Amino acid sequence: MNSLKSRICSHFPSIVRFPERELKELMVFLDSYYDEWEIVKNDKATGLPKTYKDGTVKKRYIRPSISKLKILQGRIKINILEKIGLPSNVHGGVKKKNNITNAKKHQGNKYVLTTDLQEFFPSVKSTIVHQTFIDLGFNKQFAFYITRFVTWKGELPQGASTSTHIANIVFLKIDNQLITFCEQYNITYTRFVDDLTFSSQQDFQHVISDILEIVKSCGFKLSMRKTKYSGNQIITGIKVFNHKIDAPEKIIEKVEIEKQLPDEIPKYLTLYRERILKTNKRRSK
């Protein structure tokens, strides 16, 4: 953020290298610069569509930007969003970090709490995005432009290149509250987009309600079905043990199948598991 201080009051078109005339045209015809389709959410255990209490099928709407808007969002991401510092606990949408680095942080901890934010991107409304950038020190015109070009239909569009970065920035307030709280109880906290993980060598069940309340107090909803407290669970798709991490059994089984394939066929899961296991090797002194 400090690197942007001198440019906060600058001309937004200059920062993203877009003529103001083109920006105004984009705003008028914004709907035509998004593609959109829906995906039915299926239950991993049954394979059947998930439903709400009233029986309505749960769907996820994918809304990638196209053409000039896609280019503009790319420049917003590089020239503005990536320059806003994030705490070290954030692993989603951050260079050189991923689900593996996220899980690795919890290796060796006996007690683990995992939870999931419901409808994370749709929960980040345009009003929240605008206020977040005002709170960060951007002027109103700057906040208006950013909000207009990174939200659609009043929320973050899933599929746009800027959405994960925006979500991370909006969640900064909660991240900082959780970090401060967890430091008091020697709890390790990480977040991979909408997956929150907490772990410790000591039992911290007595403060779980406080942790969850911090998240809910800012308007985000948690999936209580996916909220688990135990020492033996998969963290962001990674099996975490006391002295190592590894891929879950279903991945390992598919790796064994890949071994039987001809050499010319790419073995993506094998490479993925190798990346995981590589973190377990001790660095040479």
UniProtKB/TrEMBL annotation:
Q: Which residues cross the membrane?
A: none
Where does the Reverse transcriptase domain lie?
1-240
Q: Which GO terms describe its molecular function?
A: metal ion binding; RNA binding; RNA-directed DNA polymerase activity
Name any one Pfam family assigned in the record.
RVT_1
Catalytic activity, reaction form: DNA(n) + a 2'-deoxyribonucleoside 5'-triphosphate = DNA(n+1) + diphosphate
Q: EC number(s) per UniProt?
A: 2.7.7.49
Organism domain of life: Bacteria
Which residues lie in coiled coils? none
Tell me the Gene Ontology biological-process terms attached to this UniProt entry.
defense response to virus
InterPro entries linked to this entry: DNA/RNA_pol_sf, GrpII_Intron_Splice-Mob/Def, Rev_trsase/Diguanyl_cyclase, Reverse_transcriptase_msDNA, RT_dom
For this protein, the record's PROSITE patterns field holds: RT_POL
Q: Which residues form the signal peptide?
A: none
Root EC class: transferase
Keyword annotations of the record: Antiviral defense, Magnesium, Metal-binding, Nucleotidyltransferase, RNA-directed DNA polymerase, Transferase
Query: Which family would the database say this protein is a member of?
Result: Belongs to the bacterial reverse transcriptase family.
Q: What is this protein called?
A: RNA-directed DNA polymerase
What does the organism's lineage look like at the top?
Bacteria, Pseudomonadati, Bacteroidota, Flavobacteriia, Flavobacteriales
